[in-house]
Design goal:
Length: about 240
Amino acid sequence: MPAALVIIPTYNEIENIHPIIRAVLNLPESFHVLIVDDNSPDGTANAVRTLQQEYPDNLFLESRQGKAGLGTAYVHGFKWALQHKYEYIFEMDADFSHNPNDLQYLYKAAREGSDVVIGSRYITGVNVVNWPLSRVLLSYFASMYVRFITGMTIRDATAGFMCYKAAVLEKIDFNRIKFVGYAFQIEMKYRAYCKNFKITEVPIIFTDRANGVSKMSGSIIKEAVFGVIKLRIRHLFNRL
């Protein structure tokens, strides 16, 4: 079995699901793919089942009963990955905002000694394509805000293109994860940071989705703003 698993959460990604899976599984590096689908009304899960006939040994599907949030989808995938003994576990969006070709750079950094690798939009400037300026500024200053509150030096704290070594996930108590949106991504990085794991940022170019609908909402932004403060307070009182 390959050492690497790419977890892709989905909700109504019918337009992207076959292309993104093929793009990952046709890379020179050997990856497995786990789709965690939240009962997409558009038939995303059925599209994955169809493709499993072509990739029976390296494409897997976990179907959940309803839309329960990005964070819980990744936690579901993390638990599955650990149960199946993968050594490197990746997070990636289904909409091609994360370039599948960049998986190899995250993988290389992890194999060279990093415990957590971030596909970073901001480590070499602002590498974002097709986002409105307001969205770029929101994301960029959110990361600055996270650095100020938490003390982490990470440039892209809300990034969702990630690689975790299994050893990192094994040390995180998933039952204590509080957040589901942007704040989930921040919380995972902060928990790894507080446990002194080596975190590396690898530059990527982030491209806004061409197909489908963004899952961003005001409640997700609110969760991130106030969630960071809660994380810092819990850490200060040894309750993280």
